[in-house]
Structure formats: structure tokens, C-alpha cells
Amino acid sequence: MGHSLCICSRGTVTIDNKRYYFIQKLGEGGFSYVDLVEGAHDGHFYALKRILCHDREGRKEAQHEMEMHQLISHPNVLSLNAFTFVNKGNKCEAWLLLPFVKKGSLWSELEKLRDKDSFMSESRILHIFEGICAGLQAIHEKNYAHRDLKPTNVLLDEDDKPVLMDLGSMNPARIEVKDSREAMTIQDWAAQRCTISYRAPELFRMESPCIIDEKTDIWSLGCVLYAMMMLQGPFDLIFQKGDSVALAVQNNISLPKSCRYSQGLQDLLTSIMVANPQERPDIAWVHNRVQNLLSNEPFQDSTRV
Asked: What does UniProt give as the signal peptide span (predicted)?
């Protein structure tokens, strides 16, 4: 965690006695902003994420996100270079200094392909998906779950290596739900923190008593795979039309008969996207299956797109 942060001049910040120059804004969310900064000491670019903490609970959530970054050390999970809180009057901001991944998100890559009326080759899908599985497996091995896996939370470096980001929704993999009150509390949390079109069926209508586990991530993983194959998530259009995603996720996923991808990849998708979490495979099985499919290259559509 950073020991100090000050605004030394316009466009310059200091974290842990190292200066960083503001370059440009990269994006913003509901309670956070991300800026591109350059380290004066090394000339490297970084992403500086500023989280607005409106109260003690907000500060606690930012602290949790920092701790999740420190918990997982894996090349397919975004690392944390520095972290600190800065007080601005009666307000507080959490600052996370993160590696800058120039290529952007997996979602932005899918949008580019869609705009060009193109597609992602099977070999490229498997290469990226294998890295996503590796990162997710590292999280699950720490007995945590990501809870908000989606294409916008996957960054791609220049070599198409995927990096999982936005760890603020991570929490213990197994959550025991003892009664209907606890079930409603978790459903409300999921509605706020787990993107609706990538949210697992069990997070919409929760039985009690029950146990929610890391299989929620496996469902989201399947939605990400579908998005790479079809250039949009399986429930994106349903959400955009205002129809019920909660109802749609109860049905088995289907691909068009004209699907360009191998039966092996289609079978992998349908084995992951199973409404009943007890029938879904774990991440080790999925990762192993992807590696087996990769070993069978080349594919008919192996031209890199």
C-alpha cells in the first residue's frame, strides 16, 4: 500500500515518492475514474484508478479490491503496483496504480471485429480462452470467485494474452445461505455487482438454504466464450430489448446450425453453460479441455483474424 500521495502540480501526482505525469483519461464508471499516467522514474505507462469513497463502507470496499489484487499473483490476473487513500476535504479517494494494457478490453476487440463484419478464428479464441481459464483457476485455487467475469473485464496485451481485471466483486467462493433473508441479501448484492447478462441463474432466484459457490464464474465463463464465438453475449440482445434475462438463463443455450466453429468448441460451450450449477464442470476440467482442444491445432479457420 502506498504511504503517501499528493498533487504536486497540475497533471502530476506522487505515489510512494515516485512522480507520475497525467497523460489522458481512459474511462470512468459509476464511482471510479481511470487515467493514463507515465512514471517519471521509468518512462513506463500505468493506469491510475481512482475510486470515490463516499462513506466508511466505500473505503472498506476499495480496501477489499486492493487486497484481492495482492492475494492473486498470476500473469493472467491484473497486478497492483501501488495503492493508497487520499483525503480531499470531507471526501476520500482510493488510488490504485495498475499496469497499462495498451490493446484494451476483449469487448473492444469483439466490437472491432463486428464492425468489420469479421469473426475471431478458432485458434485465437482458444488461445485467449485458455489464458482466461488460467487466471480464473488461480482465483479459484485461493478459494475465491471473481463474480463479474465478462469481456469488458478481460484486457488483452499485444500478444493476445488475456488479463482478468476489476477484482472488486471478488469474494469467498462458497457462501452458505441459511434462510430467505440471507438469500434476498445476496440476490440484492448480485444485482448490484454482477452484470445481468453474464450473471449465473442461481443468483437470480436463490433457494434457501443453499450454497453459492465458484460455479457462478463457470457460467459467466461460458458467456464470455459465447461472446468470442458470436461477437456478443448470449443474453445481450434479450437485456437490450427489455425482456427477462432471469427467465432466459433457465433455458439451455443453443448455437445457430450454421456455426463456423468445430463441434469440439461447441460441445465445450454447452458443457459449461448448464443452468443447474451442480452439473457444471469446475475450472480445472474446463482448463484441461481447452488445452486438449489447443493441442489439436491447426484448425480449418486458423488464419489469425
From this structure: none
